[in-house]
Design brief:
Elements (H helix, E strand, L loop, with lengths): L6 E5 L6 H7 L1 E4 L5 H8 L6 E6 L5 E12 L7 E15 H6 L7 H4 L5 E3 L2 H8 L3
Parallel strand pairs: 1-3
Antiparallel strand pairs: 1-6, 2-5, 3-4, 4-5
Amino acid sequence: MSEHMPYLLKTEPEAYSFDNLEREGETLWDGVTNPAAVKNLREMKPGEHLIIYHTGDERQAVGEATVARVDVSDPKVPKVWIKAGKRLAKPRTLAEIKEHKLFADSPLVKQGRLSVVPLTKQQYEWVTGGH
């Protein structure tokens, strides 16, 4: 079993959307300042699965990505490059996520302002439709 942990990355779609990531193919995920979110970025490993979540008016998980490279030479500002994956066939709204028992204790629900959220394998599979 892989030690890899999936994460959910929140982004304001007006600032940087999944469409932008699809167009660019890969990007440096930056602008994260919350200490808990920075710690989560620092712990990422290449190959880990990611969910891209649009905040704002959308409030839904929209696509998948993977961690391409990680540079933690400056632990206060870890650099994580992510690579676009596929768009979710069925976006998962925040309302659906909050209703699901899998997320009862998740920082996604408990710490709404957290922009980099660790997920369990089961949460990731539910969001992505079980593949």
